[in-house]
Design goal:
The structure is a single chain. The protein has 231 residues and is an alpha/beta fold. It has a single domain (8-223), classed as 3-Layer(aba) Sandwich (Rossmann fold). The protein contains six helices and six strands; from the N terminus they run E-H-E-H-E-H-E-H-E-H-H-E. The protein has a six-stranded parallel beta sheet, sandwiched between helices. Helix 2 runs parallel beside helix 3.
Length: 231
C-alpha cells in the first residue's frame, strides 16, 4: 500500500533550482496535492546550507504549516564558479571537499533532523536527491573525489537514519534518490544539454516512483525509474 495519501501536503526544499522548480510546477498541477510550500535561500523563511543555523530556524518557522505528507529536498552542488570535479588525486583540496560536504551531506543531514518534526507520523515520505556516483560499489571510473565522497556520506546518513526511524517513525519512508542527468546549470559543463532530459520529465519520473513507495522501502537508494542502486 502506498504511503502517499490520496490527499497530501507537500514541501519542496530548494524550490528555486531547476529540479525544485519543476517539482513545484508538477505538484501545483497535481489534484491530490492540496497544499504546497517551497523554500530556498531567498524565500520568506530562507534556508541556506552555507548558514547551518538557517536550517533549524526555517523548520521552526514552518512548524505551524505542518504536518506534511511529502518533503522533497532538491538542494545539491556539483561545481561552482571556483571548483570543478577533480579528475585526479592531485586536484583534491580541503576547501573544495569541505564546501561539497557542507552542501551535499551536512546540510541535508541537518535538514532530515530538523524537518523530520514536520512530517505526518501517520503517513509520510522524505526524499533527498543523491547521485549514483555516490555508490561505492558502482564506482568504476574514479575521479570526482569531493562529489562522490559527499554523496556517499549523504547515503550513509539516510540509511542510518532510516534504521532509527523504523522504530520511531514506522510510517515514514526516508529515500535517497538519483534523479539522473537533467538539463540544468549543474550538468551544463558536462554535456547535460546533450545527454540529459528536461527537468519537468525528471520530476514526473521521480514522482511516479514516490507515488508507489511503501514503508518497507525506507532506507532505499533508488533511481528515477525505481531501480535500487548498490550502496
Amino acid at each position: 500500500m502506498s504511503l502517499l495519501p490520496n490527499s497530501f501536503r507537500a514541501l519542496v526544499i530548494g524550490s528555486s533550482g531547476t529540479i525544485g522548480s519543476a517539482f513545484m510546477d508538477l505538484l501545483k498541477a497535481t489534484p491530490a496535492c492540496t497544499e504546497l510550500v517551497g523554500i530556498h535561500r531567498n524565500s520568506e523563511f530562507p534556508i541556506d546550507y552555507q548558514n547551518p543555523e538557517s536550517i533549524e530556524s526555517c523548520a521552526t518557522a514552518l512548524y505551524r504549516a505542518a504536518p506534511f505528507q511529502l518533503i522533497i529536498n532538491t538542494i545539491g552542488v556539483l561545481h561552482t564558479d571556483k571548483w570543478t570535479p577533480e579528475k585526479r588525486l592531485d586536484d583534491l583540496n580541503a576547501e573544495q571537499l569541505m564546501e561539497l560536504m557542507t552542501v551535499n551531506a551536512i546540510g541535508p543531514a541537518l535538514t532530515i533532523r530538523h524537518f523530520s518534526k514536520l512530517l505526518d507520523p501517520a503517513n509520510s515520505i522524505l526524499v533527498t536527491l543523491s547521485a549514483k556516483v555516490g555508490s561505492i560499489e558502482d564506482n568504476r571510473l574514479g575521479g570526482w573525489y569531493s562529489y562522490r565522497t559527499s554523496k556517499a556520506a549523504l547515503n550513509m546518513l539516510v540509511k542510518t537514519t532510516s534504521i532509527e526511524w523504523a522504530r520511531t517513525k514506522p510510517n515514514t519512508a526516508l529515500i535517497a534518490m538519483h534523479p539522473g542527468t537533467v538539463n540544468s546549470r549543474l550538468s551544463k559543463p558536462f554535456r547535460g544539454e546533450q545527454i540529459g532530459r528536461p527537468a519537468d520529465q525528471a520530476a514526473a519520473e521521480i514522482f511516479s516512483v514516490i507515488e508507489k513507495l511503501q514503508k518497507e522501502d525506507t532506507g532505499s537508494f533508488l533511481t528515477y525509474s525505481g531501480e535500487k542502486i548498490p550502496w
